[in-house]
Amino acid sequence: xxxxxxxxxxYIRISVTDRCNMRCIYCMPEGGIKPVNxxxxxxxxxxxxxxxxxxxxxxxxxxxTGGEPLVRKNIDILIxxxxxxxxxxxxxxxxxxxxxxxxxxxxxxxxLDGINISLDTLDSKIYEKITRRDALKxxxxxxxxxxxxxxxxxKINCVPMLExxxxxxxxxxxxxxxxxxxxxxxxMMPIGLGKNYTYFSEDKIITIxxxxxxxxxxxxxxxxxxxxxxxxxxxxxxxxxxxxxxSHQFCEQxxxxxxxxxxxxxxxxxxxxxxxxxxxxxxxxxxxxxxxVISDTIYNKPKSHDFNENHENETYEKDNMSKIGG
Length: 326
Known about the structure:
The chain has helices spanning about 45-55, 75-85, 100-110, 125-130, 135-145, 165-175, 200-215, 275-280, 285-300, 320-325, and strands spanning about 10-15, 60-65, 90-95, 115-120, 155-160, 180-185, 215-220, 230, 240-245, 255-260, 265, 275. By secondary structure, it is of the alpha/beta class. Helix 2 packs parallel to helix 3 (about 100-110) and helix 3 (about 100-110) runs parallel beside helix 5. The radius of gyration is 19 Å and the shape is globular. Its EC number is 4.1.99.22.
């Protein structure tokens, strides 16, 4: 599936819910959000229909997101159904990890290929301040349990802010020293509540980590589904990665689109551009027409974001990340 910039789009992030059991300060208000009515959320059958169309168009990698995907019932059944689609190469899931430990056996049985656990700090007080929940112990237990499954790729997603302590960044990176997991540092996106915080640049983090661990060696191989790039570190079993949309814009290599929980196919995180697939599906759109609509939508994917421009535009996304499945 090629877009108008000749980028190969082979990866989709599918939000299965806008609900979450955390209240991270850059994602959701303290009092939560008004959730989308259950009747307006895509059913699992509708998600499978869309996935089958996507596969026909060349998309073969799926990541399930939220909100928090593990708050939706029977998520393991959806994983199993997607895995059974001929042409799917991988199904992964991103989670805050709070309830992950109890779900792991079912997720593994369903065939989950990888899991990304959000973890912005190892300081329990700072963690509670960021997430507004006392759940760090649960997350660390789930992380430890995840590493027992050799077939499961495990990654940590860390979104540091300028207020993040230097030693905390080093401690997060150390998780990759004695285990096979990858730690990825993600620059804060100026989307929704994220606009209230300043991002911590990749270059600044590398400087901190190289002072602690020695020279980072860039890895040419693609170790994931999306835009992250990775480094090997002396004496580390795992890898250190970066998703740096602000300081190291990767739009030329972007290979992803998003599907919101209420069925909107979104082609770029910054813009409102896309198509309401749910309404079309519930209007009994046939497979061939669905393929054409999705193909046309993806073809018109914007060339790039302009997060570095300090202005507002009516085409920009206004919703919080929990709503759009960032």
